[in-house]
Automatic annotation (TrEMBL):
NCBIfam families: GGDEF. This is GGDEF domain-containing protein. Coiled coil: none annotated. Transmembrane segments: none annotated. It comes from Parashewanella curva. It comes from the Bacteria.
Length: 509
């Protein structure tokens, strides 16, 4: 009877274990397969109604648990969980959020580890994964523990707080989470962008809420503010952005986009040896779309490379036409950080130059400071390769990004373009004038050419001439011109004339 009792107890325990395991995986599509396989394993280990000897019971338990453990190892985790962090993923979160619909209280927070791609590129994906795990641990130990947490994608994390969070608490939370993490003895700075959404204000269904939270985060990423929230009308803005993104391929194939060229005046004598290629887009329904609007959208959508290739081909084709007519100039082309990180950039440009039978010095590549800081190692390698082709390198909007004398010395740069914003209030404010002088003198002392953008008057031109500026660009010398317009004005713009110098004004005293 004792042996039979042990057998019965063992059978009951196994049934309970099966039920627990079944409950754990009942949301999975593997329910039937799980039960059938587990039953077969049990059947192999226990012969029903056959008495067991006392010394066999522990062994049978060990064999059974070993079989179950081995089987569980081959079952994929539930689809609602993120494998790396153990948090819910977007799929799992949606099912949990649906249960909150009647609640109508609390706050949703969406966090993004800013420039996380830079961490992966600089230190490798392994360290990036460790950073995400450590950041998840930090989220789990917050004083104000969220009711729900999820990893949405990449370096985006979702938090749900049941109770109202004052702005001060949110800022304190952001500050706590931004404390540098030390991984493999390497301190990694964490900068967060944050979006906040009140459940009672904007929540009608899960999809709408997540869409609006994503919209708010996008605003935060492109804003200097610490966090942002959804505002009425943001949906319409996104609809316009999606329409613009969708229209880009057609705009390139149907010639809705075109290139205009703005000459740079050489100082101290007039004339030009360079022009900058500027992209214009006239959409048949939307109307004129500024590059300041569609270029960032193309970068976010991963479409900037097709635009850049189109521009390069158009510019080189135009160079062939000009040179066949005896017109020679260098054309500056703007490239983005995404272009700079592309492994095929140098090879593609070299191939295009060879295809058009053009030398590399017919091109100048213009890059912003921030694009160089995305991945300095990759940028340095790419720029050296471009210089080897004879292409000159210019830093655009100098002084508006991550300004550093170190990169001016380290990177193969030929020209610095001082942003138009440095010309504001220079005749009324000595501090503004000093900043402009410094922005010009520093790169010149490093042997770099200096171009100042946004020159719109003779007075500004004469001031820049005295400061030793090499070139100016702006409407005072010439507005952006279509190719045929530039050809008509080529001789006029190329005429050499001695610049008139006037007596120093009081503002220079």
């Amino acid at each position: 009877m004792l042996i039979l009792g042990i057998t019965t107890t063992l059978a009951i325990a196994l049934v309970m274990l099966c039920w627990v395991l079944y409950s754990k995986y009942r949301e999975s599509n593997l329910e039937d397969e799980f039960i059938s396989k587990l039953s077969s394993k049990i059947a192999q280990q226990i012969e029903h109604r056959t008495p067991l000897k006392m010394y066999d019971v522990p062994l049978r338990y060990r064999i059974l648990y070993s079989a179950i453990d081995n089987f569980l190892k081959v079952i994929p985790p539930p689809t609602g969980l993120d494998k790396l962090t153990g948090l819910m993923n977007r799929i799992g979160l949606k099912s949990r959020l649906a249960m909150l619909m009647p609640v109508k209280k609390g706050y949703f927070v969406l966090l993004d580890i800013h420039r996380f791609r830079f961490v992966n590129n600089m230190f490798g994906f392994s360290l990036g994964d460790q950073l995400l795990k450590r950041f998840t641990d930090r989220l789990k130990t917050m004083p104000q523990r969220p009711r729900l947490m999820a990893r949405m994608s990449g370096a985006e994390f979702f938090l749900y707080f049941e109770h109202y969070c004052p702005i001060e608490d949110l800022l304190e939370l952001q500050q706590q989470l931004q404390t540098p993490l030390k991984i493999n003895n390497t301190p990694i700075s964490v900068k967060l962008k944050m979006a906040v959404l009140g459940l009672e204000e904007h929540y009608s269904d899960v999809s709408t809420m997540l869409k609006r939270l994503d919209l708010a985060l996008k605003k935060s990423v492109t804003s200097p503010l610490l966090f942002s929230s959804y505002q009425a009308g943001d949906d319409r803005i996104q609809d316009r952005e999606l329409a613009i993104i969708a229209a880009i391929p057609k705009a390139l194939t149907k010639d809705e986009m075109n290139i205009v060229y703005q000459p740079k005046e050489s100082l101290p004598c007039s004339g030009f040896s360079q022009v900058e290629a500027l992209l214009r887009w006239e959409h048949p329904e939307i109307g004129f779309i500024s590059p300041a609007e569609f270029i960032p959208l193309a970068e976010r959508a991963g479409m900037i490379d097709i635009i850049s290739h189109w521009v390069i081909e158009k510019v080189l084709h135009q160079q062939v036409l000009w040179r066949s007519a005896g017109l020679y100039t260098q054309v500056g082309i703007n490239l983005s950080s995404s272009d700079l990180c592309c492994d095929n950039l140098v090879k593609d440009i070299k191939s295009a130059l060879e295809r058009h039978n053009l030398p590399g010095d017919c091109l100048s590549i213009e890059l912003t400071e921030s694009s160089l800081m995305e991945d300095t190692l990759k940028a340095t390698e790419t720029l050296h390769s471009l210089r080897d082709l004879g292409i000159s390198i210019a830093i655009d909007d100098f002084g508006t990004g991550h300004s550093s004398l170190a990169y001016l010395k380290r990177l193969p740069i030929d020209e610095v373009k001082v942003d138009r914003s440095f010309l504001e209030d220079i005749f009324n404010d000595k501090a503004s004038l000093f900043i402009l002088e410094t922005s010009i003198s520093l790169p010149k002392k490093l042997g770099l050419d200096v171009t100042v953008e946004g020159v719109e008057s003779r007075k500004v031109r004469e001031l820049l001439l005295r400061m030793g500026v090499n070139k100016i660009q702006g409407t005072y010398y010439s507005e952006p011109l279509k190719p045929f317009e530039l050809e008509l004005r080529w001789d006029e713009l190329s005429k050499t004339r001695i610049a008139e110098l006037t007596r120093p004004s009081m503002y220079l005293a």
